[in-house]
Amino acid sequence: MPRYNAVQCMGFMLENTSLQKFVNSRLKVPIEFLTHSDFTCILEGFRVIAKACNKDNWRELIPEIMATLKGSCVGQQRFMIPLAIEAIDRSIPQEDEFFIQSLFNVAKVTSIAKDTRLDEYFRNIFQDSPKSKVCKSVLKQRVQLVQAFAQRLLDPDGIPEPLLGAAIYMIGEHGHMTLGIISIQGQLQWLGQSSLIAPKEIHNRIIDALGKIAIRHPDFTKDVATRLQAYIEHPDIVVQSQACELLRLVNTGLLHELALQDAPKSLGTRDAISTPAGPGPQRRQENHNLHGSWTVYQSRDLDIVMDRGTRGSECRISLKITNVSNGRLSIKSWDMTACTGLEAKSHSDIKVSLEPTESVKHRLSLVSRFNIDAAPTYTLQYHHHKHGAAHAEFQLPVEFAPKALKH
Known about the structure:
single chain; 47% helix; Bifunctional Armadillo-like helical/Armadillo-type fold; ARM-type_fold; ARM-like
């Protein structure tokens, strides 16, 4: 009992930053408690070790945490999992390969516990609100984490069940960052295989991911439609209706129409299916929004976000071009093709080299002398030091009042 009280006091002392160094020099007893025969002693020792874990001692303490998790019953694991996640998050730098490996190990040894906190943790890492501004260091870490996560999709042992939902979410949100690791066809195949083992409660995430793949890669809409067929008789009525509505949008071509008109930053199928059904031209009149910011192009190399506004008869555009690859690329030139009567002027030089996570903004102003129905096509030529010459091509969703003609 005296030893238990001492360990319990150490846990309280760790709340005081001035005493943490003292406690960290006396962790022998809490470590011994991890192999104690008494359930209460094991949990108290684990709590102290997890709290004491920091950037200086994690290499010694994380293995102790993992060994204890592995040897514990489900009831104990449910208490330990949040403490283990917190210790890893606080102690191991995200750029260290052991960071994501440790989280995967937690998922593997506790898969029977079916805890959802790892899923929530990864979704928080991968998620952006449409208005959030991500700094370069966070973006760089995210690219590294997404690619490290994607590497594990190819693991013969598969993704641990507690992380299936997070993996599906990652493919939907950031699949363009993984194309050097797993192709679009590979992503679709993986989503199909996941549907066989993933809990039915997260099948809606598969539908979301398929919708986002269809938006990012229009050439694969037929493949997406084929995979959606598997969900039109799903036992969950919500998933079934989601799949049926997305299939309708894909087959009619309305999905890309909605994405161009309404995407706030990136368009998920939940956004698409919540909008009223109806032909494209009617929707254009109902939601005539001349301002906004959203992603217009994504690939394994580039992420391009467009800000749009108007000034008089001008449509002003700013394209933020970000290198999301793991190597340097150089922008060589740009071009825009459009109907006669569209005048375009560039206000910035974009012939630059971009290191990973670096960005450049291309500012343009456009004036139309006539009503133009077809969106102009923007082409960016660049050279990647690993992949060689490449280009990005997409339509600019611009709308403006025509320039007044002089009489």
